[in-house]
Structures are given as C-alpha cells and as structure tokens.
Write a structure and sequence with these properties.
Length: 346
Amino acid sequence: MRAMDRLGWDAGFDASWNELGAPGEPGRVSRVDRGWSTVLSLSDVTEDPFAVRRVRNIGADVAVGDWVVPSADEERVEHVLPRHSAFVRRASFEGSRAESDTVAANIDVVFLTHSLALEPNQRRLERELVLAYDSGADPVVVLTKADLVDDPEPARRELVEVADAVPVVVTSGRARQGIDELRAFAAGGRTLVFLGASGVGKSTLVNELLGAQVQATTEVRSGDQRGRHTTVAAELLELPGGGWLVDTPGVRTLSLWFSGSGIERAFADVFELMDHCRFRDCRHDREPGCAVRAAIDDGSLDPDRWTSLERLVAEEAALEGEQRTKDRLADRRRGGRPGPTAADDD
C-alpha cells in the first residue's frame, strides 16, 4: 500500500487535487494548535513513510483529518481539499455568534461514547446522533466502563431505544472488552473519531486500540463520575493493522450547526408517525387524527422524546434566523453585493 493510500488518500481527493493543477505535495492534518497545522505527508526516509511538517493556517479553515496543500515555501496552508465528511457543531466559546467548529474532517465512523457508570442520557445521545448523521459518517454508540457495573444491559436497552438501528458496543478498556469489535470498524483504512464528555473513558479505549499508553488517563470524581480533560487537542493517530483514529477532548456542550437530514434520521420513528397524521399541516398539538399525540397517549412514544425533537427543531430555526440577520448585516457592509452563506462553510 502506498503511503498516501495508507494516510487515507483516495480517488476523490486525487481528483480534487488534479482540478487544482496538482500543486505542491498534499498532506493530512494530524493536529491543529493555535494557528499551526501538523501535516503528515510522504517521506523519503525509508524507516518512516511519513514526513511531519508544521505550517501556518493563515486564512484557512483547517481541521484535524483535512487534506491540505502547503505553499511552495511551506510557510502556510495554500489549499484545503473538499471534505468527504465533517463533524461540525456550533462553536461554543463565549461571544460566538453563528460560527461553526469542525471537530474532525474526512471521517468514516463516529464513536458516540457514553459511560455505563453514569445514568443513561438519551437526550444527549439524540443530539449526538443528529450531528453524527449530518457529518456524513456512520454513527456507533460505544458504552464504556462495563467493568464498573453489575449488569450493563438495562442501560444498553435504554440507549438502544434512541439509537434504533445504530450499532451499540459495550466495552471496558481495563478488561479489554469490545476492543476487537471497535478495531473492526477501521477495516479498509477507515478513519474513526471518538466523541463524548470528559471522563467517559475515551482515552483508555484509545490506548487499548493503539496498543500503547499514548493518551494520558485520569481518575474521575467518585461523586458524579466526571473527569478532567485528559486529551487537550484533537489528534489523528495511526492504528496498528491499518486505519486512523481521532481522539478529541471531552465535549461538554454540543450545539447544533445547520442540519441536513440529521434530525429526520435521528428521529425517524417520530417522522414516520407524522406521515400518518390525518392532516398534512398537523401541528401535533390538539388536531384530530394526530398520530403523534395518539402515540404519546398510548405510551408508544415517550413524551420526553417528542419534547427533545421540538427543542432541536427550534434550536435549528433560531440558528437559521440568527444567520439570516448576520448575512443581512454583512450584505450592507458589502454595499448589497451577495456573499457566501454559513450553510456553505462546512
């Protein structure tokens, strides 16, 4: 296997690069630190197939997993090749107004990580599934720390109610349970990404998958099983036997970005009910023949799930309204000339 292929290069990236005139030497971003990208590319050194370069992200929207072309002097990122997929959320830092934050790019599988030592959180998983579906990658629910509970099955069943057909894997990093099942998702050189709150056990699983103590781990607080961030920056790491893994810092808040079909896919059961309402414009409130209200009344639809869907739809609508206001202000500053929209950013 060529080193470029081993990095995840494929015919799609090759076509995008050739459309640019095949400039420079493409590389894949393995880490982003304060305006600098660490880029892996081909190496002339036979002992190591990859060369490591650090280039500036001047004026470039770069995320871990991106394929980039540095400038001829290797001082900055000249081109970012179109992404096959990207896990994008709304930036969570103070003062951010409708700005996107790309957690990882060109990923194939998203591991949505939850600790069995905590109460199952269906509402967080629903939100994660929306973002995962919109990323273009395949979601997998990973339940960690099975060694800390007597029986993981009740929590697994509760999350399966939300996950539906999405695979759910029960794991324990310390007992090495489920590690081979996770590793199988990297077959064919695919790129995996771990996402979850701090302290859920991502770094322990990462170390087991890598076969080395690459990421630091810390004990969680005994009172609430919360932990400190042991991963300080997202990083692309090569897996033994092929494939790549992106470990990310714990994500406390997941705010939606512009959704494609993510909400519909994450709530497919509810949208199926909507199709059976008597009226096409049913508001699912007091209308006669509302299949959603009937399902809530007979207990087949959890009212909390319906409320969660309403909140996510309202959050997306508010984001779109905020972006329209931002676009109007930008249009005025440009003197009425049209410009790009935030929906194109990702």
